[in-house]
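Final report, Chapter 2: Outcomes

The project's central promise was a pipeline that accepts a single protein chain and returns its three-dimensional structure in a standardized token representation, suitable for archiving and comparison. That pipeline is now operational. To close this chapter, we reproduce one record exactly as it appears in the project archive, with the input sequence first and the structure output second.
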Amino acid sequence: MTAHTRAADGAAEAAPAAAPCERGATVWLTGLPSAGKTTLAFALAGRLRAEGHRVEVLDGDEIREFLSKGLGFTREDRHTNVTRIGFVAEKLAAHGVKVLAPVIAPFADSRAAVRERHAAAGTEFLEVHVATPVELCAERDVKGLYAKQAAGELAGLTGVDDPYEAPQKPELRIQTQGRAVAESAAELHAFLTERGLA
């Protein structure tokens, strides 16, 4: 008996499981050093992968080591680094990958260039501002950068003695102060769900 005949006879058949959304997008998490961008990105990535999504995290520190080695921290070099990450992110997102990019990207024009690249290719780009106050970032000081800056061992720390241009109209602004990582990740996941991406 064929499957068609069984169906015609009214035999119960299991419905196929719904496939996760295969639409790619770049979610760019910008914020100060130690704002929680990378922690949030990996927490969200784990949840999305558990749901069957294809996800890549383009961590700013790893990109610096493997894709942008040799670049410094001048405005020009920072712009080059950000646009390189944006190029890779768009290529992945165009092929159905959810790309999470926890990258400081301190200058608005650099982030705008990445957005424009995505728009030109018809690929979704979502800017998320991880809006952690600099005082809390300094308390966390995951890499010891704030301590080094305070001791005079480091100059050009974003948000302290180097500019950080916070997004004026991000798609989402997450306040992490007084919140657990899971709570912030849930907010971001809900936002992606509203967008049809999760």
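Archive annotation: Residues 1-18 have pLDDT under 50 and may be disordered.
This record, like all others produced under the grant, will remain available to the consortium after the project formally closes.
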